[in-house]
Amino acid sequence: DTSGTPWGHFGDPPGTPRESFGDTSGTPWGRSGGLELLRALLSRTLGLGGDRAEPVLDELSLAGVGRFIKSDRCKNIVCMVGAGISTSAGIPDFRSPGTGLYSNLQSYNLPYPEAIFEIGFFKKHPEPFFALARELYPGQFKPTVCHYFMRLLQDKGLLLRCYTQNIDTLERVAGLDPELLVEAHGTFFTSHCLRASCRQSYSLAWMRERIFSSLVPKCEKCQGLVKPDIVFFGENLPSRFFALLESTLLIIMGTSLQVQPFASLISRVPTNTPRLLINKEKTGQSDPLMSLMGFGGMDFDSDKAYRDVAWLGDCDSGCLALAELLGWKEELEELVQREHAAIDAKGGDRDGGIPQKPQGDEDKDGGSPKKSLGDEGKAQSEPKKGLGSKAKAEKDPKKPQGGDKDKAENDPEKSRGGQ
Ligand code: CNA
């Protein structure tokens, strides 16, 4: 029980919302997690919609996953990633004891660590967030081996989606197609005026200038506070997040799986989809009560384990080990070298070579109002078809990629509250 210890590992001071994004506080599993739970309950008690799980891997090991990827049965892969994939680039995560941000925010005089990412606190005290942003500013870091492993999955037509909790934009720098990317907690890539009546959009370069001149960014039109489009506690997730996942393999990397509803994604893939965790520690295992009720988190070790594999260690080493099993190791190493050299050659480009999105008319609606539960339900059921055809389109190089619909769904401002 760490509640009441503001700087503890889980640091939930009394009265702080649970660690959940997207207006999900109040429900322990978050909104989508709650729906997932209901679905699982119905499937168990009434026998509705429960797929019968057939073990797919010939062995619960990295080698077993490697053989599965090489087989015809692995059609596509979804990656779910967190701050742990960027620590080797020099960006601290939240929870690693000692090095994580939560252990090192004392100098910002916060009432509790999470306050720095809470929208209510930010509106009153934006300075600590921008001081931290200066330290973590995207463009100062190079993507890691792990990022480029996902790029290889993409280049080989295997990546169905990458769900990231990270806000460092390194997936984009590594060349992941924005159409395959769901930046679940938003991005520094664009910024907006917080005033609902204004919602003026600003570019990464504009925000960078303010951050590095230590100015609190103010809107040029209305003098409102401008915030990067990262999702704070108490804000909504992009609607594309809620798409169903018809993937044949889930790879989870560098995340403590503590933040909902992101963590609930692990139970949104079909029940026979193998799930590989590459992380320093085992995460995502459900607590004993939930397990007793038959609700699954990850199950690596029990007698009933049939699809979950934990490879414990550094994400980069895990990706290299998997690449070796797939015969891609050299290709991966060459890709990393080539891309890093290209980034170095760009020298002082602090935007890390990320293509700049043109500033358009994206704010005409003045910021969409907070989505209702119904809206998200809709979002959940809509893109299923699109996902299947995306994987097909990827396999068929002649077929044009993506579409406006996906683009719109990935746009954080489409679902974020107009705060
Ligand atoms: P977290 O809760 O800090 O967990 C990180 C996990 O990764 C832990 O289980 C660590 O043990 C593990 N880990 C750390 N380094 C490595 C490594 N090199 N190899 C393997 N495992 C490693 O972070 P989560 O992403 O789970 O938490 C979600 C928060 C963190 C999101 O809201 C992010 O926005 C937020 N965050 C993002 C960044 C970033 O953009 N890079 C940085 C810090 C925090």
From TrEMBL:
<dbReference type="InterPro" id="IPR003000">
    <property type="entry name" value="Sirtuin"/>
</dbReference>
<feature type="binding site">
    <location>
        <position position="315"/>
    </location>
    <ligand>
        <name>NAD(+)</name>
    </ligand>
</feature>
<feature type="active site" description="Proton acceptor">
    <location>
        <position position="185"/>
    </location>
</feature>
<feature type="binding site">
    <location>
        <position position="193"/>
    </location>
    <ligand>
        <name>Zn(2+)</name>
    </ligand>
</feature>
<dbReference type="GO" id="GO:0005634">
    <property type="term" value="C:nucleus"/>
</dbReference>
<dbReference type="GO" id="GO:0017136">
    <property type="term" value="F:histone deacetylase activity, NAD-dependent"/>
</dbReference>
<feature type="domain" description="Deacetylase sirtuin-type">
    <location>
        <begin position="55"/>
        <end position="329"/>
    </location>
</feature>
<dbReference type="GO" id="GO:0008270">
    <property type="term" value="F:zinc ion binding"/>
</dbReference>
<comment type="function">
    <text>NAD-dependent protein deacetylase.</text>
</comment>
<feature type="binding site">
    <location>
        <begin position="83"/>
        <end position="87"/>
    </location>
    <ligand>
        <name>NAD(+)</name>
    </ligand>
</feature>
<comment type="similarity">
    <text>Belongs to the sirtuin family. Class I subfamily.</text>
</comment>
<keyword id="KW-0520">NAD</keyword>
<keyword id="KW-0862">Zinc</keyword>
<dbReference type="InterPro" id="IPR026591">
    <property type="entry name" value="Sirtuin_cat_small_dom_sf"/>
</dbReference>
<feature type="binding site">
    <location>
        <position position="198"/>
    </location>
    <ligand>
        <name>Zn(2+)</name>
    </ligand>
</feature>
<keyword id="KW-0479">Metal-binding</keyword>
<protein>
    <recommendedName>
        <fullName>NAD-dependent protein deacetylase</fullName>
        <ecNumber>2.3.1.286</ecNumber>
    </recommendedName>
</protein>
<dbReference type="InterPro" id="IPR029035">
    <property type="entry name" value="DHS-like_NAD/FAD-binding_dom"/>
</dbReference>
<feature type="compositionally biased region" description="Basic and acidic residues">
    <location>
        <begin position="343"/>
        <end position="352"/>
    </location>
</feature>
<feature type="binding site">
    <location>
        <begin position="93"/>
        <end position="95"/>
    </location>
    <ligand>
        <name>NAD(+)</name>
    </ligand>
</feature>
<dbReference type="InterPro" id="IPR017328">
    <property type="entry name" value="Sirtuin_class_I"/>
</dbReference>
<dbReference type="GO" id="GO:0070403">
    <property type="term" value="F:NAD+ binding"/>
</dbReference>
<dbReference type="Pfam" id="PF02146">
    <property type="entry name" value="SIR2"/>
</dbReference>
<feature type="binding site">
    <location>
        <position position="219"/>
    </location>
    <ligand>
        <name>Zn(2+)</name>
    </ligand>
</feature>
<dbReference type="InterPro" id="IPR050134">
    <property type="entry name" value="NAD-dep_sirtuin_deacylases"/>
</dbReference>
<feature type="binding site">
    <location>
        <begin position="279"/>
        <end position="281"/>
    </location>
    <ligand>
        <name>NAD(+)</name>
    </ligand>
</feature>
<feature type="region of interest" description="Disordered">
    <location>
        <begin position="343"/>
        <end position="419"/>
    </location>
</feature>
<feature type="region of interest" description="Disordered">
    <location>
        <begin position="1"/>
        <end position="26"/>
    </location>
</feature>
<keyword id="KW-0808">Transferase</keyword>
<feature type="binding site">
    <location>
        <begin position="165"/>
        <end position="168"/>
    </location>
    <ligand>
        <name>NAD(+)</name>
    </ligand>
</feature>
<feature type="binding site">
    <location>
        <position position="222"/>
    </location>
    <ligand>
        <name>Zn(2+)</name>
    </ligand>
</feature>
<feature type="binding site">
    <location>
        <begin position="255"/>
        <end position="256"/>
    </location>
    <ligand>
        <name>NAD(+)</name>
    </ligand>
</feature>
<dbReference type="InterPro" id="IPR026590">
    <property type="entry name" value="Ssirtuin_cat_dom"/>
</dbReference>
<feature type="compositionally biased region" description="Basic and acidic residues">
    <location>
        <begin position="359"/>
        <end position="419"/>
    </location>
</feature>
